Amino acid sequence: MKTNLKMLALFGAMVGALALQGCKSDEDRINIGAKSFGENRVLAHMVADLAKERGLPVGKVVEISGSQAIMDGLRRGDIALYPEYNGTGMVLVGQNPSSNGAEMSARLTEIYEPLGLSWGPKFGFANNYGLAMDPDRAAELGITKMSDLVAVAGTLKIGAEEDFRVRPIDGLSAMNRRYGLAFGTTTIVSIADRLSLYDALQQNKFDVIEVFTTDGQITDLGLTVLPDDLGFFPVYEATTLARKDAISAHPELAEVLQSLEGKISAEMMRELNRMVEIDGRSPKDVAKIALNQIGLLPDAAVSTDEPVRIAASALMTEGPVSAASLRAVRAAFPGRRVELTASTAPLAALAAGEARVALVGAESFFDVGGEEVVRVENSEAVVAVDQGLIHLVGRTGVTDLASATGLVTGPEGSSTHRIAVLLQKGLGLKASIKPAGSEDLGSLLAAIPEGSGDVAVVTLPLADATLTKQLQAGTSLKLVPVAGWTSGANLIRYPFLRPARIPAGTYPGQVELVETLSSQLVLAGPVVAASLVGGQGPNLGLATPAQVALSDESVRAISGAVAGATLIDPTLRQSQALTSGLVKQAKGISTAVDVMLVNLCVILFFTWLIILYVRREEPAT
Amino acid sequence: MNEKPEKFRMNTVFIVSMAFCAAIGIWGVVDSAGMSGALLGFTNYSLTTVSWAWLVTCTGFMVLAGYMVFGPYANIKLGRDDEEPEFSTASWIAMLFAGGMGSGLLVWGPAEPMYHYITPPGAEGITAAAARQALVITNLHWGFHAWSIYAICALVIAYFTFRKGEASMMSTPIQALFPGLRGKRAGQVADILAVLSVVFGLAGSLAMGTLGVRAGSFYAFGTSETMTVAMIILAVLFISYMLSATTGVDKGIKILSNINMLIAIGIMLFILFVGPTRFLLETFVDSIGGYLSGLVTMSFRLFPFEDLGSWTSGWTLTYLIWWIAWGPFVGIFVARISRGRTIREFCIGVIGVPTLFSMVWFAVFGGAGFYIEMFGGGGLKEIIFDDPMKALFAFLSYFPGADILNALAVALMFIFLVTSADSGTYVLAMMTSDGDLNPPQIQKWVWGCLIALLTAATLLTGSVAAAKAMAITGAIPFTVIILLQIVSFMREIGKEKVGKPQAAATIRAAGKEKVA
Question: Where are the alpha helices (DSSP H) in B31-170?
């Protein structure tokens, strides 16, 4: 008893000490602030990791959104420091940022000194406004810097966001005045849709767009940022703003900031931002990678989480459809890396557990090998992303499918191969199918001049940029119409292929509209039902990766993240999570025989148990 | 300890079980996916087709336990009338926990309430009502029902072993029910089934647990997640549980269980007092009312009108048959450590105390998770939904001193594995040595090594699912055996003379021993 009491006292003291330690240290700790966007988070985590490495009592990285709010937090002492831009520092005290960074920093030190705040060394890059172009387009027009735009501006389309338009001193109209620019058309999107500018640039809707110079998309899409040769844009150089008392209490903190001085170039920051914003990696991991790269924390352990993979046809790995898919899946798996990988049969990759999500056309859900097409029930549609149009790209001599001799498609099992099979069946074509080694546009089109076929079957969204380029380059290629599809029973036998038209002038050299077929492009997840009990519950941990279904939550997140999505094609199996409420389905009133028998057996067993208990004395005698 | 002469015992149960283990083990390793698919398919079918029978059976266990506490047999002693309990109440409860739920509490502490909060059955998620209901559902899965299943399994064995003085075997009550050769054969089937379910249950849990510890060490110490690390963990685990098992219940198992209980309570108190204390205590008190008032409804709740049969079988029934699957193991082990207690004391100890503890546990872990989602910036639910096994470590990283907490949690998980494995080894040795309460060492070594081998094979071939599927599937035939055992037990206990004076004396004796 005595020893028990002693033990208890000791234990109590231990827990108490631990708890006090937890509470007390929360006060003394150096909390590092971060604004709620990727770049700032990465910088904050880099500082935090380095400070931790030096044994400083680093608390956590506290996220505060809004420059004013985070500054207030700093002044109150909630945080000891946070990454800030010198340009923003000027704006915060009601002054205009200038394009001379060094001058601005000197001025800032003067202004913030009396507030007990000090500016740290600069990281080495600036996140300014800037103009970006597709490098091919820029080369074509001979543009290497912003001044070069002046001569051709009248023929160019520019896209910018609202916030940039309204800024009086460093905004759009001020820029036009300074450079003497007059763009042909100017399109403004809201600040929330800023990133859609990149998609629009990809689709050739714009020639020039306004960007932030460290946007990860610049690296991702390989864009060129035009140098600001007149020094018009004010600079927003990244640095840190810290409380003086925190620095004097922990002098090592100053050394940490010093060690990062000039270590991060704009290119590097773009790459880091790309990892966060586009690959969906956590800022914490990216900070470790960055420290690793610049050799400050060579043995940083980066978590080796498997990315969430989206399998898609090689035709779909670029362009707005893939971007929208990545965005949608990222919304469902925040903090996880999401990758889009090319696969000839995305649904097979899904079934094999190589991917969690597949981006496929409606035809992929059907087995087209037999006499009748049969829907394969091992995957279900989550959201409709876009509409895929069948583009039949033929040699110039080929005017209709009936006269074609060979259809070039992707490998067997691929979407384009399925479509070719259906075209063959539906239209009774003589042409044979010639599967190419890979499904990407380049190899499909290359097969035609090589002579292995005369029409390539390609499914792409309307006005695909890559195809546009290809049709420009190879003038011997043109679109072939699908004729006579509606005459037979095709619409009933293959309801997922619907007649559609490619409007005239969509592609270079296309003078009239082209009749063709379309199928819906959807994101699909695997169907996991029979083997796991209900597909949910504590047994989830049992599932091998091949069996992991998308949770209802993920399905809703993915479906909600596709802007302006249409409903899923009714011919496809769609996820249960989307059909809310009661399943209104006529079922027969009588149960299956096996179910009836099992229930009967269980009832008989229970009855037997009761009889066994009640007639207790008899077996004993 | 009174050591008996070491002698290896070969009997029918041992030989047949070994043969089955080998056969099933090979099937599992060779065609892992096929086996787990077949077994889980069977379980799924059994659960959905007669879901009502499972729920009624499990609720029946709870009602029976209530009858035992408040009915006429409450004062019967599991032992001779003058016998004193072998273990102190605190150690007894610690061992109950360590054997019975172990690492499950750790893994599901933050994760399960979150699941029901985000996606409640037949209601809208992420609302205050959903949060309240989430704790009720969690308590349903981990509370009275779970521990009643254990208690009844153990009570039957303990009664026949200590009161009737018969062998501590699954077959004993069956043989009492069907005298003669028929009973003997039925009894052997029961014994073999019990051995198999313990072996595969343990191999599955150890494999999962090893992976859990590996994931935890990655968070806590930054070790890599490779097969080599898993094998090293398994080797250390093997040495630890063999040491613990061979030193006997009164040393190794008891000490480890006590340490475990202290660490678990320590982490819980830390979360409680460093986290949002007022919120958590309010959550706890609120959940008591919700659970108690909802107990009757929830005990019979199926979803015929919502067409949510898959939810019930996926969550509630899967949990309930988990507990049944562990029944033979926990039953024999709990019986072994409960000698000398009255039936009332036994039931309150095995059902009441652990249920109260798990209610506090889930209120603290689940409640803190809710707090993070509701007021603390969120970010937890995504991790939980993505991989529940990482939930605990992700959850702990929200608290100051996360490194220490993670290290402690890894240690706790590890010790829980050791305590499950050592008591499992012990029980297997008992089962295959005709119910010897202190089985020969060599028997423990044979089973200990076999389990380690099976676990290693499971890990190396990546067939964790198959091992777990095997363990769960065993619960279905085992339910039949338990129901027969209960009938036998009720018939036997009906013959007891329950006199008033003896009862009073027992209560006094029980009271005295608590003071001492």
Answer: 32-49, 51-70, 89-100, 103-118, 128-142, 144-158
**For residues A125 and A87, what is the distance between their CA atoms, to the nearest angstrom?**
12
What is the model's pLDDT at position A293?
A: 85
Nearest-by-CA chain A residue for B105: A538
Q: Span A201-215, mean pLDDT?
A: 89
| DSSP code of residue A139 | H
User: pLDDT value at position A83?
Assistant: 93
Dist CA A377 CA B335 (whole Å): 49
Task: Please indicate whether, in this complex, the C-beta atoms of B487 and A304 are within 8 angstroms of each other.
Answer: no
pLDDT at A13: 65
Is residue B436 predicted with pLDDT exceeding 90?
Answer: no
Tell me the per-residue pLDDT of B354-390, one tens digit each, with 9 for 90 and over.
899 889 999 999 999 999 888 766 678 777 777 777 7
- Closest Cβ opposite residue B386 in set A21, A333, A531: A333
Spell out which residues of chain A touch residue B469, defining contact as CB-CB under 8 Å.
542
Distance between CA B500 and CA B79 in Å, rounded?
Answer: 18
- Nearest partner of B358 among B323, B397, B408, judged by Cα: B323
Whether residue B319 lies within 8 A of chain A, CB to CB, comes out as yes
**Residue B28 clears pLDDT 90, i.e. is over it:** no
pLDDT of residue A474: 63
User: Where exactly are the structural domains of chain B?
Assistant: 12-103+140-276+323-357+389-515
- Structure tokens of B419? 């305590």
Beta carbons of B114 and B380 less than 8 angstroms apart: yes
Q: Which of A119-123, B32-36, B485-489 has the lowest mean pLDDT?
A: B32-36
Within 13 Å of residue B238, how many CA atoms lie on the same side as its CB?
20
Q: What is the 3-state secondary structure (H, E, C) of B395-462?
A: HHCCCCCHHHHHHHHHHHHHHHHHHHHHHHHHHHHHHCCCCCCCCCHHHHHHHHHHHHHHHHHHHHHC
Task: Catalogue all structural domains in chain A, each as residue range(s) with its CATH number.
Answer: 25-123+239-293 (3.40.190.10), 129-225 (3.40.190.120), 310-578 (3.40.190.10)
pLDDT tens track for B29-46: 777 777 777 777 788 788
CB contact under 8 A, B386 and A25: no
The reply to whether CATH 1.20.1740 applies to domain B12-103+140-276+323-357+389-515 is yes
Subunit contact A613:B306, Cβ cutoff 8 A:
no
Q: Which tokens is B202 given?
A: 């343990």
Structure tokens at B280: 């958590």
